[in-house]
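Task card 7
Instruction: Convert sequence to structure tokens.
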Amino acid sequence: MERAELDLKTIEVISAIDAEKFKLAAEETAARYKQLLSEVPLLEASQKADLRNTELSLQTAKIELQKSINNAEKMVLKSPIDGIVVMQAMRRGSEFAQVAKGDQVFPGQMFMQVVDPSSMVVNANVNQVDAELLRIGMKATVRIDAYPDLELPGHVYSIGAVPVPGRRPNFMRTIPIRLKLDKEDPRVLPDLSASAEVLLESQQQATLAPVAAIFDSEGGGKPFVYLRSPEGWRRREVELGVRSNVMAAVRSGLNSGDVVAVEMPPQPQPGEGASKPPS
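Output:
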């Protein structure tokens, strides 16, 4: 009973305290509400700034994406012709090897070629002494080293204007030329080694004689040969036509089947007749 009476006596005091607490809470809530209302413009400005920053980041990402697309497109090589891709050799360490994935190439470095099998050419070199004899369009016969029995017709397509030095400075200079094949063959592949003979002149139904058998007269006279006869070796002047490094066409002075000396025969002593041909 005493406790109940004590609680009844403190009701007014407790109610006043609770009322004061509620009043303080209400004031605190009102102050917080006013503070939040004052922060709304700042929050809106911050959100707008964040949104603008995000938009700028998006635009930057789009620019970088387009730049990457452009760079990727520039890395794509489109051949202007149909053909076979031939990778070139490059120095890798102390040896030459074919260009492969991961190799570093430099500006201007040739690392591949596209070859049209229907229009093959032979890159060759000719001695600078013989270069003056060549003309564009001259017929040629091309032989592929890998197929000894294969001979293909061609013609001189281009002649270089600048000589190419040899492996050593004192070597004979050569002139680069390009021969175009006039006939296709499936066995002809890029980078095969080949040799060629260029037809400088031609003469039909000509009598041929070895160049070693043609002797020049002193004082600019006509060339001559030593013809074998029953009496011995007879000197006979000849008129020459086209010639190569080994054979010459004789227009007059020799007949088919004549035997000529490829070396100077012994000359008869004064009072002796012509030298006898060897038995």
